[in-house]
Automatic annotation (TrEMBL):
Residues 140-163 are annotated as: Disordered. Residues 140-150 have a biased composition (Basic and acidic residues). Signal peptide: none annotated. Residues 28-143 form the SHSP domain. InterPro entries: A-crystallin/Hsp20_dom, HSP20-like_chaperone, Small_HSP. This is SHSP domain-containing protein. Keywords: Stress response. Belongs to the small heat shock protein (HSP20) family. It comes from Protea cynaroides. It comes from the Eukaryota. The keyword NADP does not apply.
Amino acid sequence: MSISPSLFDRRFSLFDPFHSFFSDNSDLFGISTNAEIDWKETKHAHVFQVDLPGLSKNDVKLELHERRVLEITGERNEVEQAEKDEKWHCKERTTGKFTRRFRLPENAKIDEIKATMENGVLTVTVPKDEEVKKPKERAVEINGDDDHQRSPKGLGRFVCCKA
């Protein structure tokens, strides 16, 4: 598998700020991103549900970076080693570190984030503001020298050619 995601991979969108950047479940440092996550938006909150079977709340870390990046990290250790007279025929459960990061929307109330862990499912609830604060619109004055007439610049001086 490639380290970087394919631009043609329908699971990856260059413009989706919520998607994990690496599509092969690991990043350049070998940290797995294979924690499966559902994210839904309700009328009052953003709700993340993360499947983490076999882990407890002590195995998972939830942090907020740069005031709006939610990071979920943890480590799943190998539970059972094969004895010297035993042989594994199938071993599909993943082990190792995992991390997922999400940029929260502007309307997220980051000071009110709550998380619970039940039956191997981490649920993170991020309340949101009812109204989205829109930036104020204002006119911007253009300064310049109106006294001197200059030759027109910009696209008028370029010649287009047909291919």
